[in-house]
Design brief:
The protein has 271 residues and is an alpha/beta fold. 42% of the residues lie in helices and 13% in strands. It folds into two domains: 229 residues, TIM Barrel, CATH 3.20.20; 28 residues. An eight-stranded parallel β-barrel has the order 1-2-3-4-5-6-7-8, surrounded by seven helices. β4, α6 and β5 form a beta-alpha-beta unit. α4 packs parallel to α5. It starts with 11 loop residues before the first helix and ends in an 11-residue tail after the last helix. It binds 3-methyl-2-oxobutanoic acid (KIV). 3-methyl-2-oxobutanoic acid binds next to β6. The site of 3-methyl-2-oxobutanoic acid has 11 residues, from β6.
Length: 271
């Protein structure tokens, strides 16, 4: 692994410049200090403290149960592990949908208590007031359209979104509106690659895709999925770079054997 000695911090402006010169943005999730440190040393551009922590870290079926306090705990750990990457935190379900004042209060708590650099929110025109109010406090906002997991009970499924004309048209309009409201970047989740490419071309802010094809300005995956720590979940867009579920399982089995057989600790592993 190459260690990046010279630290030029990634900012929202850096991401904008990357889009202008056609350099792709690499984003991955982290929820803890150790993972953030490894990602940051590897040279990741953006670390997302996603509300996917609700599934990956806490074992919930959806992203809905995770609380603002829990997100702040994860966010603080990630910030302490990052020197270079831009750290973006998801505003969790229920912390911003009520009204723009609630959204601002939640965003301020995240920034103050975790030291993060930006927040991410799901939704289009319906979050206009909240995006604008959060921006008045100087907090950068990343948008999120397409499959928005906080609305899973409205959609009813995790299928590809915006395959039909009406929904695709609305998504294009919402992307443009989010840019107008002042979002610095946009995540597009699980939509047709042709539509995602059209969105990325039609707006000047960076568009980061997950299951949205190669024609966007960057990619994001859930780190535990791309490392193969999770194994029940295999959507088409997921490239697994390791099979940690298996290799960790093998290591744990070996440890258990070694303890039970008194092979561990050896003479050299004791005082
Ligand atoms: O919560 C999350 O991890 C996300 C990514 C999948 C974009 O929102």
């Amino acid at each position: 692994m190459s260690v990046h000695k010279e630290i030029k911090k990634v900012t929202t402006n850096v991401l904008h410049e990357m889009k202008l010169r056609g350099e792709k943005i690499a984003m991955l999730t982290a929820y803890d200090y150790t993972m953030a440190k490894i990602l940051d040393s590897a040279g990741i551009d953006v670390i997302l403290v996603g509300d996917s922590a609700s599934n990956v870290m806490a074992g919930h079926e959806t992203t809905l149960p995770i609380t603002l306090d829990q997100m702040i705990y994860h966010a603080g750990s990630v910030v302490r592990g990052s020197k270079r990457a831009l750290v973006v935190i998801d505003l969790p379900f229920g912390s911003y949908q009520g009204n723009s004042k609630e959204a601002l209060t939640s965003a301020i708590r995240i920034m103050k208590e975790s030291g993060a650099h930006a927040v991410k929110m799901e939704g289009g025109r319906e979050i206009k007031d909240s995006v604008e109010r959060i921006l008045t406090a100087g907090i950068p906002v990343m948008g999120h359209l397409g499959l928005t997991p906080q609305s899973i009970y409205k959609f009813g499924t995790y299928e590809v979104r915006a395959k039909k004309g009406d929904e695709a048209e609305r998504l294009l309009e919402d992307a443009s509106l989010l840019e107008q409201y002042g979002c610095f970047a946009l995540v597009l989740e699980k939509i047709p690659a042709t539509l995602a490419k059209e969105v990325a071309k039609s707006i000047s802010i960076p568009v980061i895709g997950i299951g949205a094809g190669v024609g966007v300005d960057g990619q994001v995956l859930v780190t535990h999925d791309m490392l193969g720590m999770t194994h029940e979940f295999s959507p088409r867009f997921l490239r697994r770079y390791l099979n940690l579920y298996e290799s960790m399982g093998t290591a744990f089995e070996q440890y258990i054997k070694d303890v039970k057989s008194c092979d561990f600790p050896s003479d050299k592993e004791q005082y």
